[in-house]
Amino acid sequence: MSTTGPSQPPLALTMGDPAGIGIEITLRAWHARHARSLPAFAFYADPDAVADQCGALGLPTPTVIVSTPEEAHRAFATALPLLPVRVAAPVTSGRPDAANAPAVVGAVETAVAHARGGRVAGIVTNPIAKSVLKQAGFPHPGHTELLAALSARLWPDHESHAVMMLAAPELRVVPLTVHIPLADVPRAITAELLERTTRTLWRALRDDFGLAHPRIVVAGLNPHAGENGTMGLEEQQLIAPGIARLAAEGLDVTGPYPADTLFYAARRARYDAALCMYHDQALIPLKTLAFDTGVNVTLGLAFVRTSPDHGTAFDIAGRGIVSPESLIASIELAARIAAQRARGAR
User: Fold this and answer.
1) Which of 3, 142, 284, 329 is 20 to 30 Å from the Cα of 124, by its Cα?
2) Which among 306, 324, 318 is positioned nearest to 3, based on CA atoms?
3) For 198-227, what is each residue's pLDDT tens digit?
């Protein structure tokens, strides 16, 4: 059953790179709205690009142009509400164009502005191509950093510390370091980063996921979590002392544990989230267990943001073979978190 209704604002879905699969999976999600009891959403996208995709995919979809997100509730049952964000160049599936970068970013900025005004319950972002945006002078490493900057600017009183979580029914993981070379990971791990990220994760598990007593485990950096210093000293010198300080604050945080024994079923049942030291250490188990249903959740923002846990998939864009399951899971989770935050605010 949908966790939002007319009493809650709709969600905002941003188009991502229009040459990728974002438009198609949004169309397929809208077609699944009744079967999956999805909450209402407005699609911040170029109407012509959407129409072209409907025709190319043989996926007839009634659409309606809306000027405000509030109109999405009235339209959603019978048509996909489009809040227009115009692209500068024609869109060809699988062939991104940096000329359309301003529209890609503009869709996100408009959605966040609407979240600031309480006009949308949360934001679900379709995938962007960071390399394409950088060709147009995009100053941020990725989506998360853009959203963190917008959160800090529009909510100056909110202490924003953006943390990437990948979540699925089977597992929740947070990479402490994200899109950096593996060789840079040991230098990037600091006590401040470890403790601040863990506190952000703990608060999100409590406030956004409704867990009264969150349990967090921390993976080691080295094989066997360093094995008493014989395979690396980071666990003894940095990670374990940080965990001890967090535990002294009353947080249920334990570790560091060898990463190779953290993710089997019986072990997963004993914690609510795993903090990992680097990108692949976190994402490989999550995508192995829940490739089609994983959701990227940005913790620590002043607004709700989720996203599919896959990229633009330019190689299969426009071929009609993509699955919308991760986007649908992202919509469902954004609605649940928004409802949880609304309950907590009462």
Assistant:
1) 284
2) 306
3) 999 999 999 999 999 999 999 999 999 989
